[in-house]
Amino acid sequence: MGEQEKELLDKIRAGADHVDVPEGLEPENIRKKLTPKKQRKWRSVYYYGAACACCLVLVGILSVYGMKKPGSSESSADHAGEISSQAQAKTAPEDQEDTSKGAIPAAGDYNQIYKYLKNASESAGAYGRVVYEEAASMESKSDEAAVQNTDSQAAAGTEADSGYSDTNVRQEGVDEGDIVKTDGKYLYVLRESRSRISIIEQKDGKMNVVSEIAVEADGDDQITAEEFYVKDQKLIVISNAMREQKDGRVTSYTQADTYDVSEADQAKHLGTVTADGNYSSSRLVDGYVYLFSTFYPRTDCSEDDAQGYVPAVNGGLIEPRDIYMPAWPSGNMYTLAAAFSVAEPGSVTDSKAVFSQGGLSYVSNGNIYLCDTNYSSPEDGEQTQIRKIAYKDGKLTPKAQNVIQGTIKDSFCIDEYKGYVRIAATVNKVITDEGLFSGGNAAAKRVTSNTLYVLNEKLEEAGKISDLAKNESVKSARFFGNTGYFVTFREIDPLFSVDLTDPKNPKIIGELKIPGFSQYLHFFGDGQLLGIGEEVNALTGEREGIKLSMFDISDPSNVKEENKYIIPDSNYSEALSDYKTVLIDSDKNLIGLSVHTGKYSSTLQYMIFSYDSEKGFISNMELELGNTQMSPRGLYIGDILYVVNGNTIQSFQMKDYKKIDDIVF
Amino acid sequence: MEEYGQCSIEELAVLAKKGDADAFSKLYEMVYRDLYRFALCTMKHPQDAEDAVSEAVVKAYGNIRKLRKTEAFRSWIFQILVNVCKKKWSSREYEDQPILEEMSEEKDYALAQDVRNAFSILSEEERMIVSLSVFGGYKSAEIGEMLHLNANTVRSKQSRALEKMSLILK
Asked: Helices B73-90 and B140-147, interaxial angle, to 10°?
């Protein structure tokens, strides 16, 4: 954690210093509340007993993390009783060299996995920690946002021909689920309760609710819809579900339900696929859905109880040959990938489980890249493990793996083109200074720089440029064919252009320095690159608001910021962290994003801009919205703009942004 | 409750496990301010925060016998509170509630204005991660266990949340 983050945490803590705890929660009042009255003591006991039977059972879960030695600040005294084999942990890094590169090794059998997990949990004992979990409480909802927004990107311009907008995605041709979709006729909206999807008919901006589809789990399991797809008159809803096991443990699984919505008012359920683990993300390509989830194996079960440590798909355990052993000595969870055909939505076409620490995923048009960063050896700087799994027609084939030095900020910083993978990574090195003034303690200094890697099909390094932008870190990147653009930041924002024509010899061909930085880059028509980010005062370092920049990239070696616009009084935009929230269409000259404004309080607005090289950014609409649990989305069908915010939709004429209709459902 | 003044946390936990409400209250006294602050920053409304803590306490007391490691009382009750808060989010009535801002007239809500504003632009999960870090004092791996997320995800979500908050907490 950086100094800046620590300062912020302190500030938040200080801000709560004067919070008065309500009287009802004072210990004395709680004591009175809990002390059973003598004459009806048995009843109270009975009451509490009943409460625990239906709401919670506590189990100890030995959690394993940080297999290698974390910071020395970790007090090992607290865990003295748990120290078992430090030596084992120390030898682990040596094995790493053998397994981290080249082919991805599969497990021989469950026994190998079991032993691995046992070893991992024992060697982690010194740093691991026992935490109690209110396991049986079916009242605990699954994590709503296990979805990793970091994973993917957007086709420049949406489907102009089809006359309606689609979710802004990481990779053109690779569809991603979202909370709002349209097929040009209906709007499909995930309600705030995350239990139902409403189908809304629209005509010339007038709307009415046609039907609602409720997602249902097996038996008493709890289910939360996360996102969905609409494709070829099918609706595919992906949910997180939780199940209470007989022994009181609670396990999570991901569920995909496919419905026929060719008749919107009579949706038919066609099939269900389940995969163990918390949902993390998914993709839809050529009629196949690929689900990614995260499964935490148990370490307290016996070897015979394979369900405890091997994930299942549609009720069947993953075969050992489909389980890939960790490259790090510390992978204590699985990333599970399962595929199914939308045409046969009740069965799985393939599934693989990969031991990992979790992290971002990038899906190109033919490959899945799982990237997880190992933070546990600060002395070497962070490293990222990249594993490549090819996919086609619902089949998954592991291809290669490798480790790079550095971290990858988001999925835009990794990009595949003609078999090569280009990565903009931020690299931290720790330089130890055992000088006279360090009082015998080595003083470590972190030095940050950035590296652009080009890896070949086998993920071997083909070329790279290191030591870029010292003391700055990558804020955003976008690759287009043989050219890449990336932004690093400390006080001012250099936008670098890279020529990648020769993969063995990437070259920096341009560098533009401007104040502030862009966190999201999007190609906007010919020779233009749109940046959404923040303006920062170059002298004082103060943030001055959300900034839209249009870069002229017609000559990549001489990039210019053609125009910029700082949204007055703006604090934040969802566009900075979640690309699915933006609506960008260069053919329609449309830029839509949600922005939080206001000096002393925060007002949520949905804003629409157009762009003109002469006049710059033109604000066409500023619509004030109430805060909801889901961020707003803008979409268009023909000439009508729809702004969806929680359970409300408003429609506008795009020629003058006059309101047509609104609906609350 | 003075007679418990000299007891260690472990001794109190042992007594509490035998159903001693006074010992339990003593344990609770050590953590309740942080519990409430956590709930206040995680929930939309002070009343929800109070209800959540109250519910968590009753649950914890009802199940204290199942606390295996007596020294882990704090983590344990925090975990129960986390689950109660999550449950509250998903309930229908919570969804229909007005947002935090409109509640700013509340008397007992003495959270600094800018901190409250900064929390208001976060998602529920982000609020929870930041609050667990600030008021629970937990590291990302520990928060990950409580929320069923991996440590890396917690770390990146926390940085993103703090980045958002920094825009308001200049």
From this structure: 50
Count of A–B CB contacts within 8 Å?
Answer: 244
DSSP 8-class letter at A106: B
Q: What is the ipTM of this complex?
A: 0.85
CB A661, CB A205: distance < 8 Å: yes
Q: CB-based contacts of A389: which residues, under 8 Å, 6+ apart?
A: A104, A337, A352, A354, A367, A368, A370, A396, A397, A398, A399
DSSP codes of every residue in A407-421: B--SGGGEEEETTEE
Q: Is B5 on the interface with A (CB under 8 A)?
A: no
Average pLDDT for runs of 10 along chain A of length 665: 81 84 86 60 31 25 28 34 30 44 82 81 41 30 30 35 82 94 95 91 94 90 91 95 77 94 94 93 96 85 86 94 76 87 96 85 95 71 89 95 90 94 89 52 70 95 91 88 86 80 91 84 91 82 86 89 92 88 94 86 88 94 85 94 94 94 93
**Element (DSSP H or E) covering residue A32:** helix A27-34
**Most A-contacting residue of B12, B154, B167 (CB-CB within 10 A), to test interface:** B167
| Residues whose CB is less than 8 angstroms from the CB of residue B59 and which lie 6 or more positions away in sequence, other chains included | A51, A55, A56, A134, B80, B84
Cβ-based burial of A266 (10 A; exposed 0-12, middle 13-18, buried ≥19): exposed
Name every chain B residue with its beta carbon within 8 A of the beta carbon of A601. 101, 104, 117
Altogether, the residues listed in chain A come to a count of 665
Angle between helices B21-42 and B9-17 (to 10 degrees): 100
Alpha-helix residue ranges (DSSP H) falling in A60-153: 86-99, 110-123
Q: Name the β-bridge partners of A132.
A: A60
Contacts of A21 by beta carbon, 8 Å cutoff, 6+ apart: B32, B33, B36
Residue to substitute from B86, B90, B101, interface A, most A β-carbons within 10 A: B90
Q: Which of residues 94 through 133 in chain A touch B, CB cutoff 8 A?
A: 129-133
Closest CA to A307 of A236, A348, A247: A247
Q: Which of residues 50-79 of B touch A (CB under 8 A)?
A: 50, 53-54, 57-59, 61-63, 66-69, 72, 75-76, 79
Instruction: Output the CA torsion sign for B103, B109, B113, B116.
Output: negative
Nearest to A534 by CA among A565, A561, A494, A578: A565
Beta strands A333-341; A323-324: pairing state? unpaired
Q: pTM of the predicted model, to two decimals?
A: 0.69
The answer to whether the beta carbons of residues A382 and A374 sit under 8 Å apart is yes
Q: What is the length of chain B?
A: 170
Structure tokens at A493: 């924002």
Residue B156 β-bridge partners: none
Residues of B in contact with A22 (CB under 8 A): 36, 46, 50, 108
Indicate the SS3 state at residue A294: strand
Query: B14: distance to nearest CA of chain A, Å?
Result: 16
- In chain B, what residues touch A45 (CB-CB under 8 Å)? 19
Closest CA to A647 of A144, A143, A212: A212
Write b or e for each residue in B67-86: b if 16 or more Cβ atoms lie within 10 A of its Cβ, otherwise e: beebebbbbbbbbbbbbbbb
**Cβ contacts of A172 within 8 Å, gap of 6 or more:** A154, A155, A156
Q: Which residues of A touch B69 (CB under 8 A)?
A: 60, 130, 132
The string of pLDDT tens digits covering residues A164-212 is 999 999 998 999 999 999 999 999 999 988 889 999 999 999 999 999 9
Q: Contacts of residue A14 in chain B, CB cutoff 8 Å?
A: 112
List, in sequence order, every residue forming a beta bridge with A134; answer none if it has no partner. A58
Q: Which of A19, A27, A55 sits opposite B25 (nearest CB)?
A: A27
